[in-house]
Design a protein that fits this description.
The chain is of the alpha+beta class. The protein has 13 helices and 19 strands. The strands form four sheets. Strands 7, 8, 9, 10, 11, 14 and 15 form a seven-stranded antiparallel beta sheet that branches. It has a five-stranded antiparallel beta sheet with strand order 2-1-5-4-3.
Length: about 625
């Protein structure tokens, strides 16, 4: 009975909505009718008068021109007065049009210009046509010849003809404009009226048809939709890969799907009415299942891992969700959704083992890299020896990674000091391997072969690198190399020679120095060391500098100037470095090092270090 009342209520509610919708459509029709009346009123007050007056002005103007022609033909000036009267009438028509409300300003301006033009034309035409009448009267009275009369009037007639044509075009344009606007408005109104009639007809039939359809749909859906939903839910439960069961508050199984029974090794009918304790070991039931049911009874839901037991006694882990539900009779049950997570546990264990192996491998790699760092750091020269001769000196060696492709070489002999800065291809481990090749080459050339000339050192180092990497062969596998800068400072015993000179040679690496408060740069040769396509026997250039007074020298790789940073993430740049060195060169070298490190760090900000950074600075005073 309650369900019948509910369906009946829905039917009446639907009919009420449709009736209200029909009345709303009538209100819309009334609203559109009012809009049409307003448009008709606008037409009657604006467009119709404007169309009539514009036609009247055009016709009156044509009559005015006709009167002018008759005045000329007859020589009677009385026609001129009539023409003037016609002009006044046409001007008044244009004035009335311009005073109508609702016209846009451009059109009003055009009408006023036309009226002023007509007024000026009439004034000029009255004078001209009066003259023409007089001339033709003279012809009639034989006081002058027709040829002389034509000469006198020809120019004025041409001008009047042009003005007449222009005024005719203007008045014709106005007449057509308002006539077309009137036709368009009337056409639109007819079209809207037709649409309203069709709308009312469509609404009427739609209301009748829709009301019958809606009633049938309500009756059908009130019965079939709940049933369909129930069937869909039942199919979803049956086809679910998760095990789903409904148990009462005492733990007895009221319903379970196929997946639930299969997961435990049973058929579904075998489990109906059974207690859930048969699906767990005793320890699982008391330690895991009962506490989870207690949580559900208190909080309404539980989610967690629960151990289970199959029919053959094998135990397995599951992820289970419990929720309290009530049926239509307000009886409380528990819905249990469980999934076998044996494979998941296996994969988790495998992932854990793989993670541990990866961490161990990473630890071994990092230990190797740290040891490689120690080895590479041990190759850095002992600057305490250098400070004996160059107490004002510093070096910055900052690899991008644990190891890098930059290196510093320094050696002191009885007759001189050699300082070299090397920038190898790449950074990290590949760059570090290249530094080993460069270091061994420099030791062989300088220590074993006794070569101290910077240009010759670079030449032999080029040959050494290319032959070591077999870049002089057509089947060379690598195309690596390095840039370098080398300085040689001669000694005499334990002191500098007098006069003191320094020799510099560079392979695509410059020497910066400051003398007499002026920063200068000696560019290296445009030739790198190594690489397949380079000249194996290239002759590098020596640059000899005479030390005068207090001079500061700087040798550096491009990692400093190429560092990205700042507000717009741009390179630090050579210009910025030169400006910085020009302001700090007179400070102690230790202070200069601190300033350089602080400035590049602040400029870099949160950006990654782009490349290895290496700088050597030293001061020589003659």
């Amino acid at each position: 009975m309650n369900r019948s009342l509910s369906i009946l209520t829905k039917i009446w509610l639907s009919l009420s909505i449709l009736i209200v919708s029909y009345f709303v459509s009538m209100i819309f029709g009334f609203f559109f009718g009012q809009k049409i009346e307003e448009r008709l009123l606008s037409i009657s007050e604006l467009i119709v008068p404007a169309a009539n007056l514009s036609n009247q002005a055009l016709n009156t103007y044509k009559e005015q021109i006709q009167l002018y022609e008759e005045a000329v033909m007859s020589g009677e000036k009385i026609f001129l007065e009539s023409a003037k009267s016609k002009s006044s009438k046409a001007q008044n028509s244009l004035l009335f049009i311009s005073q109508l409300n609702g016209l846009d300003q451009d059109l009003v301006r055009f009408i006023n210009e036309t009226r002023d033009y007509l007024q000026a034309f009439t004034f000029s035409a009255q004078i001209t046509y009066a003259s023409m009448c007089s001339v033709f009267n003279e012809v009639i009275e034989s006081e002058t010849t027709i040829e002389n009369a034509e000469k006198k009037m020809k120019t004025k007639a041409v001008l009047l003809n042009q003005q007449t044509k222009e005024l005719t075009d203007r008045l014709t344009h106005l007449s057509k404009l308002f006539t077309q606007r009137l036709n368009k408005e009337m056409t639109d109104i007819c079209h809207i009226n037709k649409q309203i009639r069709y709308l009312n007809l469509v609404v009427f039939f739609s209301v009748v048809l829709f009301s019958l359809t809606l009633v049938s749909i309500i009756v059908s859906k009130s019965i079939s939709r709940p049933l369909k939903k129930t069937l869909m839910l039942e199919n979803a439960v049956e086809q679910s890969v998760d095990g789903i069961a409904v148990i009462d508050l005492h733990g007895y199984i009221l319903f379970c799907n196929i997946a639930w029974a299969k997961m435990h090794g049973y058929k579904r009918d075998d489990l109906m009415g059974e207690h859930i304790s048969c699906l767990h070991s005793e320890a699982q039931f008391y330690n895991e299942v009962l506490p989870s049911i207690t949580v559900v009874k208190k909080g309404g839901t539980f989610e967690g891992e629960i151990g289970r037991r199959r029919r053959d006694g094998a135990v397995f882990p599951s992820m289970m969700t419990l929720n309290i539900i009530q049926d239509v009779n307000m009886e409380t049950s528990i819905v249990s959704i469980a999934r076998d997570i044996t494979k998941q546990k296996y994969y988790e264990a495998e992932l854990t083992r793989a993670k541990e192996n990866a961490e161990e491998a990473n630890k071994n790699i990092m230990d190797s890299l740290r040891y490689a760092t120690m080895i590479q750091s041990s190759l850095l020269p002992n600057f305490d020896k250098l400070k004996r001769f160059l107490p004002e000196s510093f070096f910055i060696w900052k690899p991008r990674e644990l190891v890098g492709g930059d290196m510093i070489y320094m050696d002191i002999f009885m007759n001189g000091i050699i300082i070299a800065v090397i920038d190898c291809t790449g950074h990290g481990v590949p760059g570090a391997f290249m530094t080993m090749i460069a270091y061994s080459g420099l030791r062989k050339i300088i220590k074993d072969d006794g070569c101290y000339d910077p240009s010759q050192i670079l030449k032999h180092l080029n040959i050494f690198v290319k032959t070591t990497l077999q870049q002089d062969k057509p089947y060379a596998l690598t195309n690596d190399g390095l840039d370098a800068a080398i300085c040689y400072i001669p000694l005499m015993g334990d002191r500098f020679t007098d006069p003191l000179v320094m020799t510099f040679a560079g392979a695509k690496m410059p020497l910066l120095y400051i003398s007499n408060n002026e920063l200068l740069m000696i560019k290296g040769d445009k030739q790198s060391i190594g690489y397949k396509d380079s000249d194996t026997y290239f002759e590098f250039t020596n640059h000899i500098l005479k030390i005068n007074g207090d001079m500061c020298f700087y040798m550096l790789t491009d990692g400093f100037t190429d560092q990205l940073g700042g507000e717009h993430r741009r390179r630090f740049s050579n210009k910025r470095l030169k400006n910085l060195l020009s302001t700090i060169w007179q400070k102690p070298l230790k202070v200069q090092k601190d300033v350089l490190l602080k400035d590049i760090s602040e400029y870099q900000g949160q950006n990654e270090q782009q490349d290895d950074i290496t700088i050597i600075g030293f001061r020589i005073t003659s």
